[in-house]
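Model: Ready when you are.
Researcher: Fold this.
Model:
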Amino acid sequence: ERRAFISGSTGVAISYRELDRLTRQVAAYFQSVLSLPQGARVALMMPNLLQYPVCVFGLLRAGYVVVNVNPMYTPRELELQLKDSGAEAMIGVELFAHVLAKGIAGTQVKHVVVTGVADMMPWPKRMLGNFLVRKIRKSVPDYSLPGSVSYRDMLSRGAAARFERVQIKPQDLAFLQYTGGTTGRSKGAMLTHLNILANVKQGQAWSDPFLDKTKELISITAIPLYHIFALGSCLGFVGRGGTNVLVADPRNIPAFVKVLSKYRFVSLPAVNTLFNGLVNDPNFAKIDFTRLRFAIGGGAAVQRPVAERWQAITMAPLLEGYGLTECSPTVSVNPLDLTEFNGSIGLPLPSTEVSIRDADGRELPLGAAGELCVKGPQVMKSYWNRPEETAAVMTKDGFLRTGDVAVMDDKGFLKIVDRLKDMILVSGFNVYPNEIEEVVMMHPGVLEVAAVSKPDPDSGEAVKIYVVKKTPDLTADMLIRHCRENLTAYKIPRQVEFLDDLPKSNVGKILRRELRERR
């Protein structure tokens, strides 16, 4: 009877008993009604609604492969991913059904299920909620999907159908998780049931000693569940019988703070930009943080000024971890008994090996910066239908090349210096944007910053920073003087440009690539 998932926006909860019943209905629908064979790929395209865990666990228990799709995709992007994965069925939310209708043309998708935003609410709130979204807010553009069925119809027909328990082997695929990966274009990381379960167990071994399991373990799931960081954290709490509070739009910081104020949560995984947004909200400090055991930053570097403000408000350290899609996702995390932010991504999880290597694959001594390479049970099987790209990221001795530059100290703690592809080469010297951004964030007038490379006739490349102001009187000269006091000469930005907002992914990660391409 424990609560498994709660909708942050409506407060509606489903218990583990209800999750078992609903997922059985989903599994039976695809098995018996659609006669979809085990191992078929099924795409999911929805934000953090209660329907997501019902669908994902229903598909997994029937032996299907889940293909997570970003709901913000354009029809072209959606079509590319559906074609590449060979998905035969699709479940999407009606907010984006018009994109789905255009994107499935020419793909192998034969079956489509469409859900309304309020479909998990009890009657009559379900009817009223969907009416509000469709007719009052007019948030559902017109679409045509002949032959599609509704989410409620799927559950109803699944309840009347037979579910046959399937045999699932450890090496069977659980997810085709698409990523830009370490070499550019989007590709599907083949994550097996063993990969996912191993990473869940690794995370539990790391964190369970610090959790009071006699009380409800609530985690705030604000990062989109189609992203591997949120998915991994969510699965970890399901694995220990905890409760995930699903937040569909964390970018609305005032509304997000209201959700946080309703729960005594023990865990909040997020990205640096989200933590930064929270600590700058005047109502955030009013929240009850007495149950908070760990806030884990991932997806991008956590900046020290943000971490220090977080700890001053919550009295709990903001700790950094590290992972990537190809590792299901977690590789390392800081020990949960640390008392303050240390700037590292912590120590490797149990059963995980790491190696710092040069461009020729030779292991480097402690303290030297090189590419972080990883081996462990959480490392993906391969890239889907990409043998050459798989070979390019795997070493001869079985390590995955991450594309991230890291150093290890004499205690085994790792620190990410930056992405190889984001490194700036100034007159032959390596400059890492993370360092520049952390220094700029120390200035009290800065809300957000991104550092990128720009062509320079004298030094080849130079540092340019894009800044969002916290105080209106901030000038470029003030920032340059600040950088001169904290950085060596070749690291000092040559150009400063102020923007109202920085481009971000749906997870909140700042998109340096878009800024590099900006004229």
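Researcher: Now this one.
Model:
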Amino acid sequence: MFCFFWILLSFHQSPYLHPITTKKHIMQARSFSLAIALLCSLLSQAQNQSIRLNQIGFYPQGPKIAVIAQASGPNVFSILDAAKGDTVYRGTLGSPRKNSLSGKNTQIADFSGLQKTGKYQLALADGTRSYPFEIKPLVHRAVAIGALRGFYFQRMSTALPTSFAGSWARATGHPDTKVLVHASAASSQRPVGFEISSPGGWYDAGDYNKYIVNSGITTATLLSLYEDFPQYCRNFNTNIPESNNQVPDLLDEVLWNLRWMLTMQDPNDGGVYHKLTNPSFDPMDLMPHQATKPRYVVQKTTAAALNLAAVAAQAARVLRPFQQQLPGLADSCLLVARKAWDWAVQNPKVLYEQNELNKSFDPDIVTGAYGDRNVEDERVWAATELYLSTQEAQYLSPIQFNNDLSVPTWNQVAALAAYSLLRLKKQSAGAATPLRERAIAQILKLSDQLVADLDSRPYHTVMGKTARDFVWGSSAVAANQAIVLLQAYRLNKKGEYLQGALHNLDYVLGRNATGYSFVTGFGSKYPLHIHHRLSEADGVVEPVPGLLSGGPNPGKQDKCPGYLSDAPDECFVDDACSYASNEIAINWNAPLVYLAVAVEALAQQKALKKKR
């Protein structure tokens, strides 16, 4: 009872209930409570670190898998009622699976046969118990809402009131109504120091800047979610200021960034500025309203123009039914897309090379470069979106799938073009039929590669097949792999694809080699010290919720001490200094939103059933 009292008292000091509580105060209180909790853990042998599972829960008829790392004792497990302690299910652990990345063995606990709703824990023979989890319909709805609300917390140029932001309310910062044209972006109509207004948008990551290239894949992923699951998204309320305005909340959030993106086009020639940024990153302890360095738009680039062309063309298609609520916006988007495309045709390879620019132009810019040496995939993507929105033959010839598709990232977006082609109905594809068939073949080929040998993998996830999965933003690799599989599932309803996507959601929410749920605020063990200026500077102990931490990255580019391991799937540290493994980014959150919303939509359609 002593242990229970102290843990309850200390670990439920929620910043939702105590908005003025500071990190210093809570951390002092928790230092003692952590010691008590550790003692209690040792006394009760409830060391759940060896049990890795989705810390949120499972669908009643869906697969339910936990992974036991470093198992000892008899190969049996039980599922217990979390409140009563009664055993409701018994099972046998699978044979050991060797993890080639770490050399460690794991065992699988499969309790898919348990379908009764409730709150449970998994228990091993030695008394070890898992974090609590639930079995219930729509079990990931809160995650889906939280992940989309993560974008609300990243909004710029606006105050976030307590009524919508809770403990993370903040003053207006970065109005961006007087942004300077950098010397690298100067033209006769807009010379050096010319002021433009470019408000809105989302903070890109843990910093306070805005980047067109990264906004491209982010905004497109959210628009694609609406295209793929429109009925679900129309009723997906997330409690943002625009809720109940006759536009779906998902699109309201997209509009906050889309409208900023449109301001980044120079109306004189159609070119698009690569980014809007400070010359250098702000200190970690400044809130937005305290960060007042001059802001610049920097060089127009082909990558930026093609990203805006693609997103604006897709937006024109998606927003067309909302002309009454958003008069003229779809037409404006299409006009912007055409002008950006025409600029890119005239300037086919203007690349962003930050170090070279700094040799010629002042002030030096040392924020995120998002440089891309090859823009052919952006060209294919932009042409595809323009063709689909205009049906004009001029946009067909640039669409070439010359190489196998890969899981999309900000600098490799050909898969986004393929996704859009899949949305064409076979009977109405017309001249695009060969392209659609090529896209289908490529998506299915990639999906088959992703799910191959799934049943022998140490964490029974698509994610982690090779060490190459663990890069900067590896959590988003898992989410984007799942989107590939969901696209394949929408083609042929093959259960293996849907199951693979769901297993990767399990990975993100705790069934991984670190034992973390990588989504802040969700699960029993999630990162508390993300590399995120808003979370570091706000005086609230809990990080901003609904944000996806980057996850294991053996590159360790930040040189931050304290990494858990050198093994690729364990190379993570929950420390704000670790921008290589523990930063957040909008292009990582977008696929999380897509994945969580998609599985919820499919669960409503009763598509999620256990594998037989």
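Researcher: Key takeaway?
Model: The chain has a mean pLDDT of 92.
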